[in-house]
């Protein structure tokens, strides 16, 4: 896809010095990527990963606050002062059993690299840049929790990227996502002597799972429902009195997510009624992830800069919702103009959230992508900070898309439907 930037951006001299600074830091950035990859820490427990970031920034004479905005493994570093202010976001949590099968080590290194490139030159640009470390994207909606604690209150634009199994995509959008923890409670009985006295909670979970499978035939193509059974009994000769499952829902719009919620709740209720069990449906163990509202003006800038590095940027048409994933960056993109481009580091067949992708996340193409991505983010920030015409265009696009949203109130609209009595 060809992106046509609407304004002139930064001078070639400023861009060149930022680019050269990041190229000079390449070895340290690749090392950081590999350190975070090796640590492979789960959300809210990324202590070693954050320590590696702190050490690299300290070696460049930059201060970083670890433990901020209510999160012990969040971090914040600032360069410059005043407005406009750009935030560059880092992620660094891993997946259980897979490690960095989503490549957050690359996200971390590119964000830190962009900040290292900007910090020495920010006074010449005006305004400020903040590096925010955002924990628990995979399992905790860390960005939403940080936003509620004020992390984005004085930010004008947000930049981050994500590695991808496939091509580079600048104007990426993602699906909204929410989850429900399902518990069915039945009545235990001897499975052979007195089965008629029991009420089988495992049957209820299986019925619910089958109902969800049938639902998939009749959803919009961008919707997703997936589930796992997490508990189904402890002894084969006892009618299971307790069974549990986790169900995840995704949709391209908030309205679609709400509609899907009601349909899933009806299936869960029906399974309880069929089996004579009692349903407990605990929605949203973490805040829902809302669909990403990408700012195509900023995305065009990013695309131009990584294209200059020899990368090929394609349009997401043909990929389901840009790849079908979800991210808590969606919640921030409704508050502040934001981008979340995808940075190709692996072939499409590697897939995301796989052990194969985890291997690619520490291979040489990913190492090259760390530097390319850091430069792309940094030069996009340079353009935004130095060009008032660009800032106006970004703001106009954001306003036309609906402007800032009260996300807390919006999440209330995705309210849990009241369960039907079993």
UniProtKB/TrEMBL annotation:
Q: Which GO terms describe its cellular component?
A: cytoplasm
Entry-linked Gene3D superfamilies: 3.30.70.360, Zn peptidases (3.40.630.10)
User: Which InterPro entries does this UniProt record tie to the protein?
Assistant: Amidohydrolase, Bact_exopeptidase_dim_dom, Peptidase_M20, Peptidase_M20/M20A_hydrolases, Peptidase_M20_dimer, Xaa-Arg_dipeptidase
Question: Mind listing the GO molecular function terms for this protein?
Answer: dipeptidase activity; para-aminobenzoyl-glutamate hydrolase activity
Name residues in a coiled coil: none
Residues annotated as domain Peptidase M20 dimerisation: 179-270
Name any one Pfam family assigned in the record.
M20_dimer
Gene Ontology process terms (BP): folic acid catabolic process
- Keywords, sorted A to Z: Hydrolase
The family assignment reads: Belongs to the peptidase M20A family.
Q: Which PANTHER family match?
A: PEPTIDASE M20 (PTHR30575), XAA-ARG DIPEPTIDASE (PTHR30575:SF0)
Protein name (record): Peptidase M20 domain-containing protein 2
Q: Which source organism does the UniProt entry give? A: Blastococcus saxobsidens (strain DD2)
